[in-house]
Write a sequence for this structure.
């Protein structure tokens, strides 16, 4: 069976990779001699193997650091949702219907952002863009405004000053939205 130059290069890179991964020293001349090639050729295979090891190490480091980050983002996401729903329900009249309606707005905001950002929209064109960004954006804006007004009213009802009532709701729904986008950004993208 004959081997091509590409096969030889791959075999040499794999041998260099395995040797370096085992923590052993390796020179270009050693790899070159094993495969009947020049020292420069062997040195290039070692560089490729080192680059592969460095990339794997960086990926492992990223995975190690992404777990705590993901937990923090999920905690922020859930806290934002919980605080927004609780504040909207607390502001509502003490009837079941009013409280259900109060809970609807922050959940509508959350779901609108998710619908706009998470699914892969396979359709393109003006009308599909209008549906994606226009319609879901409209739902998100209306839900955000109503949720904001409920939380602002609740803060004023609890005796907070007007500046706190003005800015406080932005941090609650903002935390939920930014955490949702952070989770999206951290998600593994499907290979195309």
């Amino acid at each position: 069976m004959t081997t091509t130059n590409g096969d030889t290069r791959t075999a040499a890179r794999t041998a260099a990779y395995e040797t370096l991964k085992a923590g052993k020293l390796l020179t270009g001349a050693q790899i070159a001699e094993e495969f009947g090639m020049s020292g420069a050729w062997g040195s290039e295979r070692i560089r490729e193997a080192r680059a592969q090891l460095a990339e794997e190490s960086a990926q492992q480091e990223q995975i190690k650091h992404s777990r705590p980050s993901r937990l923090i983002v999920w905690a922020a996401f859930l806290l934002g949702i919980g605080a927004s729903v609780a504040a909207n329900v607390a502001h509502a009249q003490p009837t079941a219907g009013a409280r259900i309606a109060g809970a609807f707005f922050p959940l509508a905001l959350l779901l609108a952002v998710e619908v706009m950002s998470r699914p892969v929209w396979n359709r393109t064109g003006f009308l599909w863009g209008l549906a994606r960004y226009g319609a879901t954006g409209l739902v998100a804006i209306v839900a955000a405004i109503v949720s904001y007004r409920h939380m602002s009213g609740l803060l004023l009802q609890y005796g907070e000053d007007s500046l706190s009532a003005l800015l406080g709701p932005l941090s609650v729904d903002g935390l939920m939205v930014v955490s949702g986008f952070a989770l999206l950004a951290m998600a593994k993208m499907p290979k195309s």
